[in-house]
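User: Can you write out an input/output pair for a complex, sequences first and structure second?

Assistant: Here is one pair. Inputs:
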Amino acid sequence: MKATIEPPPEEGQRLAPLHRRLGWFLGIALASAVGVAVVAYALKALLV
Amino acid sequence: MDYDAVLLARLQFAFTIAFHIIFPSFTIGLASFLAVLEGLWLSTRRAVFRNLYLFWVKIFALSFGMGVVSGVVMSYELGTNWAEFSKMASPVIGPLLAFEVLTAFFLEASFLGVMLFGWRRVGPRLHFLATVLVAVGTLVSAFWIISANSWMQHPTGYEQLANGSLRAVDWMAVIFSPTFPSRLAHMTLAAYLTTALVVGAASAWILLKDRAQTESRMALRMAISMFAIVAPLQLLAGHESGRMALEHQPLKTAAIEAIWESGPDQPQSLVGLPDRDAGRTHFEIAIPGVGNLIQGVPKTRPIQGLDAFPRADWPVVGLVYWSFRVMVGLGLAMIALGVWGVWLIVRTRLEESTWYLRAAVAMGPAGFVAVIAGWIVAEVGRQPWTIYGVLRTADSASPVGAGQVTVSLLAFMVIYAVVFSAGAVYILRLIGVGPATEPELPHGEGRAPGTALAAARAEPEA
């Protein structure tokens, strides 16, 4: 079973390059924001 | 709109906001707690902090979700049940709520995704940044909501147009109305205390079963530190908030203290049964000569009593009076819990004290009760106004009938009972299991780290 909430990297595990980690950071944040916006506009569409 | 419909609309808002306030008052503190835990894990690399983080982040995610769902309902209620209020006040209140969504909610919602799904992908430091941003987002959210509510308690920086609607003329005066700083401090500290009480109760519950559980020992100590520091600060913040109420809403103060007659050198009512119709408090126990001192005014200065205001404007005195006493009583119990806990820590007897652990468990819901009691004091005490001195509650409601409001109220009660009971039971089950103590298993092997199953015992008890 894959973890729902991701745990921290294992001790000694090599991290991905910074640009890739920054990409994930911004990508996940943007995807989350877009997800919220989609729900908000869907709710608005239901009312109008 | 007839009176019954107004009363039902008020009941509906009271019901939905009482449910809603439970979640932000918990998640504001929990987000900061998570940031502290992750910061400590980053600086010390002790597994205890990581395990606590992975345990509480699940509860945070659930509570955050339920907070969002219950909050959205209230936005709609402003339109369905309080259309006249919205029509008149939205040029002032609308931007404050929009700022809350744009600056706080999106911050929280965006970086919650990184918190939950990105630890390995973004690495420890960027993940910590996401946790801090979410914690900041919860505080910014509190800032805007308390700003809007404080403006409704004491409106400043606006003008009324010929058509009756309100318009901001000084946004700084709108955002930073006089009661805002003390009310923000009071609410934020209340949120921290609420979280500390839940963390303390959850940890004490586990320790009652296993006194050596490392994570719960650490979490209980952290919670006690919060009781010991924040609860006394809350007393000061509450006093300042009360002083602001006396200055700007003397009728509310008169109801809180059941002061029926104006005059100097007021007694301090401790307990009693206020009788609005008779204009007196039955079976009252009061301390003479200290009322003015507690209100922070000279003994010779008169304090306005309820007799200084038209009887039609009086709030429900008994409800305000007793809600205040419940809040203050619980606040004093929190201070006592902090002092007792520190004393046990100093004597290295914390985990041995079954009575303390039981008391900590019993006090778990106290923060929620105190927060709701405090909001009853603030909101019922403001009646009969929605915007104090500007717009009456009876004039704020939508032109809808009692039947329509009753149907939606019943629908909310049924849906909330199902949805939030399920959420609450799930959270309580997680708390009952407690944080993991063993090292997390790698991805894809057995019970996944970070999941509820991983938090459960590896081997079920026979």
